[in-house]
Sequence to fold (157 residues):
Amino acid sequence: MTGEHERPGAAYVEIEGERQLLLPTTLDACEGFEPVEIRTDMACDDSGPIDGPWTGLDLGDLLTAAESPPDATHVLVTCRDGYRVCLDVTDALSGVLAYRRDGDPLDPDEIRVVGPGIDSGRSAKGVVRIEPVALDADTDPTELESLAPASDPAVEP
Fold:
């Protein structure tokens, strides 16, 4: 894990594992990965329901290609602004790293992890890093999270 919060201009998404993948933020140009379309109910607190199918790269395929450790229990998703969520690996494996919504391309600041098991409020956007982690039963996954962007005054440096 890195302590970085902001990566202005990052032109890639890192997928960590035994083998690190660096994917361009123009994800539809990623060779070797087939796009997947999913539908999932989502809503933003400020803009309401988000309609339309999401197109992206299957997170299971990405984690497999990065040779994710077999003992991973969670997936830590870090965003450009420092927002970070820790998703249960089962929920993450049912999701995609979305680069299109309703057929329209997303800006790099909008690339997000979405899936049927991922609550809207935990659907991180502006993703720059996805890292599988193995947590023991006594570790609370929320301790790894940062749910306020680094630019938010409530976030301590």
Remarks:
- Residues 59-65 form the longest helix (7 residues).
- Residues 1-8, 152-157 have pLDDT under 50 and may be disordered.
- DSSP finds two helices and twelve strands in the chain.
